[in-house]
Amino acid sequence: MKMIMSRRLLGICIWMGFVSLLRAQTDFTHMDLEVWPDTLNSAIHGKVKLRFQAGEGTDSIGVNGIEMSYDAVTLNGTSIPYSSNDKALWFAGTEVRPGENQLEIEYNCQPRKGIFFIGWDDASGVSPRQVWTQGQGIDHRHWIPHKDDQTDKLTLDIRIHFSADYQAIANGELVSRTQEEGGTSLWHYHLGKPMSSYLIAIAIGKYDSVQTRGKNGVPLTQYYYPEREKDYSWYYAHNEDIFNFMNEAVGMEFPWPNYKQVPVKDFHHGAMENTTATIFGDFFLVDEVAFNDRNYTYVNAHELAHQWFGNLVTATGSDHHWLHEGFATYYQWLSERNLYGEDHFDWLRWEEAQLVFEASRSDSVPLGNGKAGSYRFYQKGAWVLQMLKDRLGEEDYKKVIQHYLQKNAFGVVNTDSLNSSIRQVTSKDFSGFFNDWVFTAGEPVVKFRSTVKNGIVELEYIPVYMPFESIPLRVKVKHEEGATFSSFVLGSEAKTFKLNPAGNKISYWVINPDMEQLMSIHEEKPYPFWISQYEESESVIDRYLAVKGLKASSEKGTGDYLLSILENTDEHYAVRAEALKQMKSLSNEKKFNGYIAYALRDEDVQLQKEAILLVKDPDKKLLKNVSELRKGRSYILRNRALELGIDVSDPEANRWLYDDIYTSEPGIPGRKVEISALFYRAMLFNDKEALQTLKLRTSQAYDFITRMNAIEAMSVIGYLDEEVCGYYFNALFAYNWQLRRKASELLKSYYAHNKSKKVILQYIENHKNDFSDFQKRVVSATFELNTD
Ligand SMILES: [Zn+2]
To answer: What is the mean pLDDT of the chain?
Structure first.
């Protein structure tokens, strides 16, 4: 025991020493990976050939590899002595010839990360059966021994041996698919341009596909489940438009030989931009109704943008991660603007800015920091690029991005690479910009109060939080002769500014027009100016802010005015929704219910969704409008309509529970509506059949969102038997962490009660001999039990 311990320790020390050696002297250039996925044991048998360039005098090489066993290790075709532990494999003391070498490793592993075996444990045959991968940041070392470092780029060959009944998809181009003995196929994919290994992808499953081409001839393949063919045009909506737009917007042709998109079950994230092979969660396989609740279109654009930003040019480390997510999010915004117009773009930027401010309220980490979190990497990153474009101008910005991509193509970048491209293209110094927006935490939070005297506006500026030394701010003043702009500089001192556009009568003014600066602004303005702002501005944000401002001014007649906004149908739903919300405190309940009913009848499904959330205790009249939405154009609407009907014991709603629309429609995503109906049937009518169906929905036959919804419903019912216990334990061992957490919470709460504790202990007793080591560890940790 002691000896093993010291050998392991020694191993780690030597390995640590080699990391620097390896960085200095070896460059891995090509990976040839061959795998035989074993679905029975969720295991991988593999062979990997790693080509590398070695410097003079190299006699040691190490690669990452978590909990693997090795069958053979050769260097340039000759067996060599090697060492390994549960984190790495390395050799030392074997002379490596200068120049090109090949290290070949044959290995076995049973990974819990990096590659996932889905649905093979579902005896019912309902679940799709898949094998798929997810590598970011360093998870591929769990199933491929290699130098798992995003700064080292490789070309690829991937060979997959698997049952010929399935499709196997991987990075690059399919070179060949050959039939093998015993009913398997060998798929061989090749990618001749270098990329980081975290972007390696394999997806195996039963798929059909649609093949199209971009304007530039790039082959595009969209995979889907055969049974979901009829909704193809919803989940892959605008696919080719997005691709063609992206090539133009980026200003550089798609840098890879093809582009594929593959849905998979129980994906932990939304999607992953693996080079040429994006993998996304099948919860995006929406139908026409679910499209209004959640859709893949924006994700499609986001992952595609990564093929340039992240895959072609890759950040050196997590402190520069915003160069991946900020760019992908920004080009996704631009793609949405292209599809849905300026108002959509403005509203998106506004909403995303609120998320950035939220992040700044909880901690003060700058964007250029590995711990910045999603709202900064994605939303703030995109905002910073929008501001950069504003300052550079459209033309120069595009030249800068082209320079940045071309100069660093197939290489690595950091924030300074972008700054350096700006310097080289425009001769301008943007160090101050990056210092403020990337390396300084927070955004300005400011207040303005205004008074108008003799045609002159006095703006009183009150800084609440000013992270920068100063920031320029423009104010747009609208007057009888048109519009003029005044520029001011805001610092950490309160100040008063005057607006007086050459004696013209001021109609209204907008601080920070078109959201030029990412700053949180609270403004008080006299009532008539809000009215003019609402009536005259073409910007959805200006109109939205006017509606918000109106209420604060508490002028008589505000309620009527807000009603007119709702009724006169402002072009954007968010403005009307805000008017409706403001009316709550300005009217009695009966009147307010009438306004909600009006909004529920609106043609815009997004306004209907906002309105139904405001329904609390519906009277008969309002309930009638709610009822109509049980067939609404959104599952959120349908579900809420059902819940509200049941809440007030509407006999009509009780009948819906047995209606086809609720029982046969999967209610994508996560069968939310169906699960609500089953839940109410089981709870209200003690319906055994509904309970049994609900039990099955917690099983591995279904996707993780359905299972979590069903587990939630079952936990309210409080029913536990041996069968359900088995499904919960299966969920407790799942790859998907959200499902795992849900099952763990529920089982722990059951375990605290004597009656259900017995069921759990009995289940463990009956099955402990079948538990794997991993499962034993999970059970021990969850229930503080020894399972041996
Ligand atoms: Zn992303």
So the answer is: 93
